[in-house]
Design goal:
Distance between the termini: 68 Å
Number of helices: 4
Radius of gyration: 27 Å
Shape: elongated
Largest sheet: none
Length: 126
């Protein structure tokens, strides 16, 4: 059984010397802020297990993962800062002209006014 596990980990351990591995870790941990389905924690833990007790490589892994997470958070903030107001304005504009807008004789919440019913049973009261 351990022979099969060794066969699975040999190609992965061969990638530890590749600079592409560090780029993948940076991208996966950065995209985790925008795309929640990215397996950043799993990627970092897998690489840490493959690195083993090599402290300089573990420090490099922690630095690359932290830099990717910081870059992803900054990117998410920038997207929200610049696209957020336009998206909210567009949603408000569409909801004001959309099919769910209240017509004449309706209150601001889209429900008919409660002038003829008692206040206790009026859903718009209160």
């Amino acid at each position: 059984m351990f022979e099969q596990l060794d066969q699975l980990t040999e190609p992965l351990q061969g990638m530890l010397g590749s600079p592409w591995l560090w780029l993948v870790i940076l991208l996966v941990s950065g995209l985790d802020a925008l795309l929640p389905f990215m397996p950043s924690e799993t990627t970092v833990v897998l690489v840490a297990v493959l690195i083993g007790p090599d402290l300089p490589l573990l420090a490099l892994l922690a630095g690359v993962a932290a830099a990717g997470a910081l870059a992803g958070d900054c990117l998410g903030y920038a997207v929200g800062r610049y696209a957020g107001p336009r998206a909210v304005a567009r949603l408000l504009r569409e909801s004001a002209a959309g099919p769910g807008t209240p017509g004449p004789g309706h209150g601001s919440n889209g429900m008919p006014p409660c002038s003829s019913s008692p206040a206790a049973s009026c859903p718009a009261a209160g």
